[in-house]
């Protein structure tokens, strides 16, 4: 018996009896005696071919999810469930005998939550989870129903606006002038993160020599809650640790509040010098004015009075006392407008809130995200004088700091119903981030942080409207479940991360 060539592909064969319809009547003499019609059969041997490919029609999904859907249904075209959570098989012809390779069935998959549903989905709105979610979505403002592409384009617009502002950075008459003198640049942690000269914080006690600190005044106004002030600053370097405490002493009224959103070291790089007392065994820090100058010395020490860990906010809470040792200084006005002069022996309380659950350039997820929202509440509770600015810093003082400030503004707006009647052309989150960047560059630095603001706003809006969790768009599956666990490509487009290089000068 001749062996089959190794290069010849092997095909599975199938034995099939097929009926043969004679083209002309058989001669009378060949009919059997019982005179009954007879069907002739032929034995056919043919390769076992795969079933015809199924054409998949996907409505309302991005191209990446479409590819995954095609893969799933091309693998198993014969079984498609028709229920609320699974795709519905819509054949071109209900008669299975008429199905041909040239006219395969069409599979329709429910669309992405952020997109509009098909007319058929709207007709069935009352009887399926997708319909309930469609009804819930109709209560949300348009800016919270944007798709990924729209958010990406808006973030690019924010970057374009910032590049236009930078064109005026060498003009001293511009609001976006950047002072690049050596004594200023040496105090920056990163070479490309500056403070606009028009909004920068100026240190009072060291004004005779160098009043620069990489910190910016931020003001956000709301029709509901009025004007709220912040100071966004970088994580101090060792040489500038004293400056942060001077700023807290000078700029805050009543007990000050400092919110720290970065670890001291991340990815084997220092993100912030540990400028505060760590625990009750290391409860004191002294800061003397070491720089030569013409102003009188002003020396002070920090005393850690209390330390505790808040489980719900996942935050280290420190109550720190600033005690003047030498010199005099005038602090910011309190709620009555009275500016207190501080001398030896005088003290001021500052609450230090240290949150570690937020990775650089990213966003907190899961329990860390819930804890961050609790931290926002905690910071406002500790800030006893509402007119006193919250001091917020991460490493560069723009990404996580900007996102925190934006959240602190967005959450009360949702609770007061400010966004309930926003028209379709208005996007208050985009407008807010753009206003923050007018006051400090790169605020809400990455696209993932920008998207996070929309996600949190949508979740909180759905909660306030009383939409059950199972009917919220964010909870609905967008791709059918598969036993082979085909991985869905991420819908998030990561923004290009500009380099953040530390300054070489001290």
Molecular structure report:
It is a single chain. The chain is an alpha+beta fold. The protein has two domains: 54-139 and 476-492, no CATH class; 148-466, Protein-Tyrosine Phosphatase, Chain A (Alpha-Beta Complex), CATH 3.90.190. The protein has ten helices and 17 strands. The protein has helices at residues 63-75, 119-123, 129-137, 148-166, 182-185, 241-251, 367-382, 399-415, 428-439, 447-464, and strands at residues 13-20, 40-47, 88-90, 106-108, 200-202, 212-222, 226-233, 256-260, 265-266, 269-270, 284-287, 299-310, 315-326, 329-333, 339-342, 347-355, 390-393. The strands form five sheets. It has a nine-stranded mixed β-sheet, with helices on both faces. A hairpin with a 5-residue loop joins β14 (329-333) and β15. α4 packs parallel to α9 (428-439) and α8 packs parallel to α10. The longest helix is centred in the first third of the chain and has 19 residues, at 148-166. The protein starts with 12 loop residues before the first strand and ends in a 42-residue tail after the last helix.
Spatial strand sequence of the major β-sheet: 5-6-7-17-8-16-13-12-11
- At the fourth level of CATH, the homologous superfamily of the largest domain is Protein tyrosine phosphatase superfamily
CATH architecture of the largest domain: Alpha-Beta Complex
Count structural domains: 2
The outline comes out as globular
What share of residues is helical?
10-25%
- CATH third-tier fold name of the largest domain: Protein-Tyrosine Phosphatase, Chain A
Decide which structural class fits the backbone.
alpha+beta
- Please provide the count of β strands: 17
Number of helices, where a helix is a run of at least 4 consecutive DSSP H or I residues = 10
Radius of gyration: 34 Å
Task: Round the mean pLDDT to the nearest integer and report it.
Answer: 77
CATH class of the largest domain: Alpha Beta
**Unreliably modeled segments:** 5-9, 29-35, 56-66, 72-127, 475-499
Largest sheet: 9 strands, mixed
Strand proportion, as a percent range, falls in 15-25%
What is the string of helix and strand elements?
EEHEEHHHHEEEHEEEEEEEEEHEHHH
Ends: how far apart?
Answer: 87 Å
């Amino acid at each position: 018996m001749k062996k089959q060539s190794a290069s010849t592909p092997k095909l599975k064969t199938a034995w099939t009896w097929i009926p043969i319809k004679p083209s002309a009547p058989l001669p009378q003499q060949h009919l059997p005696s019982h005179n009954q019609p007879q069907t002739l059969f032929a034995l056919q041997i043919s390769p076992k071919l795969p079933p015809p490919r199924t054409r998949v029609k996907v409505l309302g999904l991005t191209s990446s999810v479409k590819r995954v859907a095609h893969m799933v249904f091309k693998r198993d075209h014969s079984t498609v469930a028709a229920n609320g959570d699974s795709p519905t098989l819509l054949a071109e012809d209900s008669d299975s005998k008429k199905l041909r390779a040239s006219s395969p069935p069409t599979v329709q998959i429910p669309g992405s939550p952020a997109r509009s549903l098909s007319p058929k989905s709207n007709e069935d709105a009352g009887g399926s989870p997708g319909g309930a979610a469609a009804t819930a979505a109709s209560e949300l403002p348009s800016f919270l129903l944007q798709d990924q592409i729209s958010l990406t384009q808006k973030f690019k617009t924010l970057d374009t606006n910032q590049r236009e502002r930078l064109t005026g950075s060498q003009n001293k008459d511009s609001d976006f002038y950047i002072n690049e003198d050596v004594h200023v640049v040496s105090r920056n942690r990163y070479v490309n993160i500056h403070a606009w000269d028009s909004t920068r914080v100026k240190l009072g006690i060291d004004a005779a020599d160098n009043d620069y600190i990489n910190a910016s005044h931020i003001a956000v106004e709301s029709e509901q809650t009025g004007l709220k002030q912040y100071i966004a600053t970088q994580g101090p370097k060792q040489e500038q640790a004293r400056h942060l405490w001077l700023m807290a002493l000078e700029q805050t009224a009543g007990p000050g509040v400092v919110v720290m959103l970065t670890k001291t070291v991340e990815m084997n790089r220092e993100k912030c010098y540990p400028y505060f007392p760590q625990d009750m065994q290391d409860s004191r820090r002294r800061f003397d004015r070491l720089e030569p100058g013409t102003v009188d010395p002003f020396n002070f020490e920090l005393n850690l009075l209390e330390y505790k860990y808040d489980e719900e906010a996942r935050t280290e809470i420190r109550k720190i006392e600033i005690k003047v040792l030498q010199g005099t200084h005038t602090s910011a006005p309190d709620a009555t407008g009275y500016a207190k002069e501080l001398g030896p022996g005088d003290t001021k309380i500052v609450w230090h809130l240290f949150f570690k659950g937020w990775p650089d350039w990213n966003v907190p997820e899961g329990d860390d995200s819930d804890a961050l929202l609790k931290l926002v509440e905690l910071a406002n509770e500790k800030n006893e004088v509402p007119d006193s600015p919250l001091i917020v810093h991460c490493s560069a003082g723009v990404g996580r700091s900007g996102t925190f400030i934006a959240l602190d503004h967005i959450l009360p707006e949702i609770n007061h119903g400010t966004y309930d009647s926003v028209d379709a052309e208005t996007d208050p989150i985009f407008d807010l981030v753009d206003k923050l960047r007018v006051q400090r560059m790169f605020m809400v630095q990455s696209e993932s942080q920008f998207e996070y603001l929309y996600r949190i706003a949508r979740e909180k809006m759905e909660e306030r409207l009383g939409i059950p969790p199972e009917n919220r768009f964010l909870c609905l599956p967008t791709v059918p479940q598969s036993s082979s666990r085909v991985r869905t490509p991420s819908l998030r487009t990561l923004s290009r991360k500009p380099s953040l290089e530390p300054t070489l000068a001290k």
